[in-house]
Amino acid sequence: METKSIMIVGVGGQGSLLASRLLGNVLLAQNYDVKVSEVHGMSQRGGSVVTYVKYGDKVYSPVIEKGEADAIISFEMLEAARWLPYLKKGGKIITSTQCLSSMPVITGAAVYPENILDKIKAEGVDITAVDALKLAEEAGNAKASNVVLMGVVSNKMDFEEKLWQDAIEQCVPEKFLELNKKAFELGKNAE
Asked: Is the Cβ–Cβ distance between 163 and 184 less than 8 Å?
């Protein structure tokens, strides 16, 4: 199988590490060679972060160059736009509709761009946008929006649901397990 590349992008504190662990566990359970990068960027709350996930028969490096990503999973709309040059032609974006103001926007030095989704669609990109924050709050905690998005992602990948459930059980602490399973299910049923 040719190597596939997925970028998980967002803002520090949104749970990209858990999302990459869930995805990595599912891929490993399918006997793929999987490489997951460390988070790059300002991983403190508020800074832009990116995690690379590559899988296939043999993967030599987790790094994804511009124009190589088969998919971008974004926890925030502006991050989806920021990393768009990394998406290959025919690639897919799955994004939360959440908008988080960066420090320049908060201080008034910049303005949060308008119509981000429309601009991405105008580029001819296959984009799925879900209000993951609302669904996470419905599940019981806004912090579960990362797992909501993984539920959406599960619809786009041809893997058994049991693999996703097993990954959640392996990666999520017991006291948050039911909340995250509910968040995953809400994401899976969001489309």
From this structure: no
pTM: 0.91
* Segments in the chain below pLDDT 50: none
The identity of residue 145, as a single letter, is S
Measured between alpha carbons, how far is 151 from 24 in angstroms, rounded to an integer? 14
Compute CA distances 88 → 21, 26, 115, 163, 164, whole Å.
Answer: 23, 23, 22, 27, 26
Q: What is the DSSP letter of 110?
A: S
* Residues in Cβ contact with 156 at an 8 Å cutoff, skipping those fewer than 6 apart: 71, 92, 94, 128
Beta strand 40-41 with 4-11 is unpaired
| Both structure tokens of 99 | 């908008």
Per residue in 37-87, pLDDT (tens digit) is 876 665 555 677 889 999 999 999 889 999 999 999 999 998 899 999 999
Going along the chain from its start, the domains and CATH numbers come out as 4-188 (3.40.920.10)
Cβ count near 57 (within 10 Å): 10
Contacts of 53 (CB under 8 A, 6+ apart): 5, 6, 7, 8, 20, 23, 24, 27, 34, 35, 36, 37, 62
Residues in the chain: 191
Rounded distance between C-alpha atoms, residue 171 and residue 24, angstroms: 10
